[in-house]
Amino acid sequence: MKIGNVEIQGKAVLAPLAGITDLPFRLLCKEQGAALVYTEMISAEGLIRRQPATVDILETRPEEKPVSFQLFGRKPESMAEAARIISGKGADLIDINMGCPVKKVVRGGSGAALLKDLNEAVAVIKAVVSASSVPVTIKVRAGWSPSCFVAAELARAAEGAGVAAIAVHGRYASQGFSGHADWSTIKAVKDAVSIPVMGNGDIVTAMDAKRMIDETGCDLVMVGRGTLGNPWIFREINEYLESGNSAPHPDRAERCEMLLRHMRMMTTRRGEVAGVRVMRKHAAWYSKGLHGSPEFRNKINHALEINEFEEAVKEFFAGQSPAFI
């Protein structure tokens, strides 16, 4: 299928996750079969001001393509300027975040706050579409609160403004990440527009992905927290959708190898101290559910150097059963 002029091969997409979907993680997920990957959220204001931490997010590699750069902001003129910058930095798509419920984002009128005023949201969309040289998409929540479902109305307006696809997280902003995603909201959006729709929310297994497609008719499934410590979920989804068979979950040796590769990629990009610090949370996710993981996390959280990290990882995974307990 295509989003605008961008060919998407596959059905499973890596969702944008702040502090997670950096270049190393995107490359690993792409290797495992992600059809499309998203950057972390990019602040339009930070990008315009050339803030180093924001500019750093723009790094991309040919092997991760197609890649979508996700912008957040509330001022149409700033979002347009940021879109012009990103269009020349290797983005295949530009996505507008209209779903992040985090307080510091919402407080500035960005993210899910745009769901409170659809006129303002459409003004932002039109500005980005006009400025971008690549297709523009949006990612939304169902609405601000359960009493205010606006995703279908916004999707229709976005399609009219030139948006090429829409991703719908089936929770309301007021829910945060609690409770369950209401997939019927995704179906309502799919029924409302002719552009591709991505369904997001509560996909943690390949069976979940198949069930979402069957229940909502969505064109793509977007996986977020289900990827944490589990880039293999894309391999598993692809296999299940193509053949109905369940791909084998990685054993301890594959987990160990992937975690060590992830660590090396991260430290190469960020340096030893910063890279090891970032990898502590990933190590916790890779080891989740395995016997002895609390002790392992404690040891990893005290690691300061690559050698310490590698030694702890090899020791832990060498002694574990591949089965979850």
Short description:
The chain has 325 residues and is of the alpha/beta class.
Oligomer: single chain
| C-alpha Rg (nearest Å) | 20 Å
Q: Looking at this structure, what is the CATH superfamily of the largest domain? A: Aldolase class I
Rough outline: globular
For the largest beta-sheet, the strand count, sense and barrel status come to: 8 strands, parallel, barrel
Strand content: 5-15%
Strand tally: 10
Biggest sheet: strand arrangement: 3-4-5-6-7-8-9-10
Parts with pLDDT < 50 across at least 5 consecutive residues: 320-325
CATH topology of the largest domain: TIM Barrel
* Percent helix: 40-55%
Element-level helix/strand string? EEEHEHHEHEHHEHEHEHEHHHHH
Q: At the first level of CATH, what is the class of the largest domain?
A: Alpha Beta
End-to-end gap:
40 Å
How many helices? The count is: 14
Number of domains: 2
Secondary structure class reads: alpha/beta
Mean pLDDT: 94
CATH architecture of the largest domain: Alpha-Beta Barrel
